[in-house]
Design brief:
By secondary structure, the protein is of the alpha+beta class. It contains twelve helices and 23 strands. Helix 1 packs parallel to helix 2 and helix 8 packs parallel to helix 9.
Amino acid sequence: MGRFGRWGAALALTATLAGCGGGDGGGSAGTIATGGTGGSSGGSVDSACSLRSRQNWVFSQMNEWYLFPETLPASLDPSPYTTVSDYIDALTATARAQRKDRYFTYLTSIKEENAYYNSGSDAGFGFRLTTDASQSKLLVAESFESGAALAAGIDRGTEIQGIGTSATNIQSIQAIVSADPNNGLSNALGPDTAGTVRYFTVADPSGAVRTVTLTKAAYTLQPVSPNYGAQVITDNGQRYGYINLRTFISTADPQLRAAFSTFKQQGITQVVVDLRYNGGGAITIADLFNNLLGGARQSSDVMGYVSFRPSKASNNETTYFAPQPESIMPTRIAFIGTGGTASASELVLNRTLPYFGSNSGLIGTNTYGKPVGQIALDNAQCNDRLRVIAISLQNANRQGDYYNGLAGVVPASCRAGDDLTRRMGDPQEASTRAALDFLQGKSCTPIGTGASAQSVGDGPRKLVQPATPSAAQRDVPGLF
């Protein structure tokens, strides 16, 4: 992406209690290594990686790069804050109140991020969890191919009825949530370290109830599922491309290219793009996605604009289309989204609007609302990576302020549920069915700007997220 690529730009939804994560996509090669303690926040500086020094370093970087400098306090004594993250939350409080930075700026681990964004490696059970509004019903939204959950027969639609550290102390989901409504579920699932064991009472979609023992282990998350992530659907006598992207990481590149190569070979001109749980990731993968959908574009056509704060305007960029050998020339695109769809996912949809208009539709529910991105600032000696909101993103028509989600921006939308009784990409699954109906020109009920995720049969749902998500959980909300 030209000069902009060196910033390790990240487009992803960061942690909120309501349920989605976000993160980075740059890896170590695309970051600024600042080091040192850098400036002062009003307190003394001691050893290089002490709490105070790390807080001072964050304060200095925020004052130099933050996209909303007018919202930062002129000074803020770090003494009352016992962690760097708490201090960052205090610095961004005004922007958060304005819905500009809802915990999008955060501190993470360089080592952990690089492991995930370079290869998709993570340690966990390998499933994505969602709950109903009252958190009384815990369900598996999907399981990942090389994880322990799928190996144990736990997949989309399975209900987890209880969790314990042994077969004799399994607690019901209701009891766990009653004891701790905010973090009970994520705490019960244990730390994201290999070897963590938990016992589950699960109800399979067939209704059979059993006890399962799962051990967290390292596994590699496939951005495009080899089982259902890319397919050609024949419906009502017409062929449609279906592509489900879980996360925008580097390993998505060959998988997306392979999918679109198949679409191109089969003459696909209408596509369902399923991003319903995708919290974001690397801008470079978002660019690739738009280029694969942009076979009709010229290299002189603007894809979008990237803007820094006025003092950093020399870094602003205009991104142009660069059609790839695998690119197709779609006439109509249906994007499936939910409240878990954020950042890079929203960016891809938004950048289609100037060229497709009402032939590019949002299916499902309103998206999260994150038209900004992070850059990566590294304090390598302390293994600290500051993901700071530093860029705003617009499409070719300069549209970009969708802080309340894309439902209020897109000219065409259709409300649909997330049907856990069928796999994603099944023509009868609620959102997939609505997407195909949109492509076929059928009428539908538009999505309201305040619409929350809606399931089939058990009311609104939200993805489960820990208070302090891992790098993977930021981009893959609900992942455990």
